[in-house]
Amino acid sequence: MSEKPTIVLVHGFWVGAAHWANVIVELNKRGYDRIHAVENPLTSLADDAERTRRMVKQVDGPVVLVGHSYGGAVITEAGDLPHVTALVYIAAFAPDAGESPGGITEEKPPAAFANIAPDSDGYLWIKQDKFHESFAQDLSPDAALVMAVTQKAPLASTFGDKVTAPAWRNKPVWYQVSTEDRMIHPDNERRMAARMNPRKTVELDASHASLASRPEDVVDLIEDAVNGTAG
After folding, report:
1. How far apart are CA 56 and CA 51, in angstroms?
2. Mean pLDDT (the chain, rounded)
3. I need a surface site. Which of 70, 168, 183, 202 has the fewest CB within 10 A?
C-alpha cells in the first residue's frame, strides 16, 4: 500500500472531472497512485456535496480534498468527514455559513461576469466566443475552444445555494490565488483565503484555469498540504 494519502479532486462550474488532466498527470509523476476526480452533476450544492462525500467514503485512509472554483464550495460543504486531513482551494470559492458563490460574486463582480448567460432551461453558460478570454486566457486558443464546446453548465440556482457548516473551520487549509482570474475576482479569493487562516497561500500569475495552465505549481501546493498533515 502506498503511504501517500488519496487525492480527491473536485471540479467547478463549466468544466468536468477531466479538467484536472494536467494535475493528475503531474501527481502521478510524483508517485501518487491513489487519485480520484469527482464528476459532480452541478444541479445543487447539496447534490454535489453528497456526490463528493460518497467518493470520499469509498476511500480507506487519509484524504486530501482539492477544489477548483465552485468545487471549493463543494469541499467546504462536504469536507468535514473524519479522514479528510486537508482542504486545498485552487482559485476557489470558500463560503462561510450562509454564504453562496453567487452572493460572493455579486459583492465584487469579476471581469468576465457579463459573459455568463442563462439558457431557456435554467442553465448558465459562458458564451463560447468569450470563453478563452474569460476563463482560460493563458491557455492556447485550441485548448480553450475544446473547453468552451464541452463546458458543463450548472443549473443557475446552484449559484445561490448556501453553505451550511464550513469544513474549513475545522480542517487545515491551503489556498491558491489566480491574480489574473476573470471568473472570481482575485480580491475575493484573497479575502476568502485570509479569513480561513490557511497554512499557506500562493499567488500565481494565472487565469481561472490555473489547474490547466500551471499544474506543477498547483501540485506543489497539494504536496505542501500532504506534507503539512502527514503523520
Report:
1. 9
2. 97
3. 202
**Three cell numbers, residue 6:** 488519496
Grid look-up 455579486 returns 106
| 18 phi, psi to nearest 5 deg | -65, -15
- The β-bridge partners of 7 are 35, 64
Name the residue with cell 474549513: 168
CA 190 to chain centre: 15
Contact 144, 152 (CB under 8 A): no
Q: Which residue has cell 447539496? A: 46
First to last CA, the chain: 16
pTM of the model: 0.97
Distance CA 185, CA 195 (A): 16
Please state, as a whole number, how many other Cβ atoms lie within 10 Å of the Cβ of residue 183. 25
Looking up cell 505549481 gives: 217
Q: Is 202 exposed, middle or buried (0-12, 13-18, 19+ CB in 10 A)?
A: middle
Checking if the pLDDT of 231 tops 80, the result is no
Beta-carbon contacts of 184 under 8 Å, excluding residues fewer than 6 positions away, are 69, 91, 92, 93, 104, 105, 110, 178, 208
The pairing of beta strand 116-118 with beta strand 84-90:
unpaired
DSSP secondary structure letter of residue 183: S
Which one-letter DSSP state was computed for residue 114?
G
Give the number of other CB atoms < 10 A from CB of residue 39: 13
